[in-house]
Amino acid sequence: LSSDLEHPAGGYKKIFESCDELAEPIPAHVSGKIPAWLTGSLLRVGPGLFEIGDEPFYHIFDGQALIHKFDLKDGHVTYYRRFIRTDAYVRAMTEKRIVITEFGTAAYPDPCKNIFSRFFTYFQGIEVTDNCLVNIYPIGEDFYACTETNYITKVDPDTLETIKKVDLCNYLSVNGVTAHPHTEPDGTVYNIGNCFGKNMSLAYNIVKIPPPQDDKSDPIEKSKVLVQFPSSERFKPSYVHSFGMTENYFVFVETPVKINLLKFLTSWSIRGTNYMDCFESNDKMGTWFHLATKNPGEYIDHKFRTSAFNLFHHINCYEDQGFIVVDLCTWKGHDFVYNYLYLANVRQNWDEVKKAAMRAPQPEVRRYVLPLDIHREEQGKNLVSLPYTTATAVMCSDGSVWLEPEVLFSGPRQAFEFPQINYKKYCGKNYTFAYGLGLNHFVPDRICKLNVKSKETWIWQEPDAYPSEPLFVQSPDAKDEDDGVLLSIVVKPGVTQRPAFLLILNATDLTEIARAEVDVMIPVTLHGIKSQ
């Protein structure tokens, strides 16, 4: 799964450049043959505007949200994109400056205001961003773009128009939720976010949004908290980007990357503070795994512990013979990976990019196994009896269970990230294949497939081509788990004509089926969805 490619030309810098939205969809030039059954839209979001006038955004997660759509119909393809009309975007466009503080960029008070009105602006509290550049997902019959705050934005999947901003705090006790909800076949949506629990101490809530309603009412209005996980530190929640769900359990991994809430609340009134300033690492706690049952939602008070790692993406997890198998894209240690994702870092020349990646936490795909049946008397013994894994779980004298992983893939500075599976059929179930974006010193330069059972790997790669997260679409007559295609937006900045394309790969062996090229550059996209 590792990449031998070097990128001395630095073409990857182009995916971090601003672009214009399109007035109307443009036709794509198709080579190869798109399967007749493959229709509908690929919707993706990411940053599309990296500065406002002469004010730059500093972090990869700061650029203003741009929604992209490739439409597939009768073998023809069109491409369209629009900026999402968030408050952050509209106000920035109106005032021609950064108005709302983003992840790694602080907004400053309006220089035209006098000192008194500036002073009062500080004490109106935190204005949280609604810049929904991370993912897009369905709730009921609707589609929402999201970041990781309490705001999600309803968008029209056909016209890409912005419909409305929704504040989840109006319906749920959460400070924000992740951009990686889980969805059941009936349309029920689950997510996780931190909240203030008993005695003002922190906790994490799993929330449940019901499926589409018969009376056509908004499911968000009927959302509720299902179960609560405790926090390892009273005022410092861990950063949570995703969580795991099996048929009967939720899996929450509490990492040592913390948000210092007191700093967050107090620093906001101090000029120049942003979200990134409020992160810190706890170098003593390692990583904690938590479990809860799904129905009814109840916390299971087992203390699973392991060494420190960063975690952004769960691949999948499932139950097997009294164990829960959890597959993760980890980054070793407690140093926060996002510290290496400032735009100044990812836009450096190739040799400098490589040096920075040498200092950063190292990526590793890992499998952890959590035993459900724990007996105190089995101290020092490996509790994992599954025959196909080397992962261990050992009871310690203090009653905690120490986990050691099985490594599914590891290559120096070579990450298997943005993982995808055949979600509709295998989410929460024993599965074989994971697909991912290969990061070479943080530069996305290949699409990967991993057999999590045999560790066999496949890759798609072309020189100076920069793909995005591959989405799996199952073929209608599928017999095997990997019968289907992968969809990825690829950018080739070095070519003079049609520098970006939708790539369609055979998911079985990662051979190319077709590509649909467009005559515009496409900046980096983070996550997305295939809609009908």
Structure summary:
The protein is built from 6 helices and 36 strands.
Polypeptide structure, described:
By secondary structure, the chain is mainly β. The protein has one domain (11-531). The protein contains six helices and 36 strands. Strands 16-17-20-21-26-25 form a six-stranded mixed beta sheet, with no helix packed on it. A hairpin with a 2-residue loop joins β8 (135-139) and β9 (142-146). The chain starts with 25 loop residues before the first strand and ends with a strand. The model has no long low-confidence stretch (mean pLDDT 94). Its cofactor is Fe(2+).
Structure characteristics:
beta-carotene 15,15'-dioxygenase activity, five-stranded antiparallel β-sheet, globular, 532 residues, six-stranded mixed β-sheet, mainly beta
Q: SS-based structural class?
A: mainly beta
Oligomer: single chain
What is the CA-CA span between the terminal residues?
A: 31 Å
Q: What is the total domain count? A: 1
Percent strand: 35-45%
What characteristic shape results from the CA principal axes? globular
Radius of gyration: 23 Å
- Give the overall average pLDDT: 94
**Low-confidence region ranges:** none
Number of helices: 6
* Major β-sheet annotation: 6 strands, mixed
Please provide the count of β strands.
36
Strands across the major sheet, in which order? Answer: 16-17-20-21-26-25
What share of residues is helical? Answer: under 10%
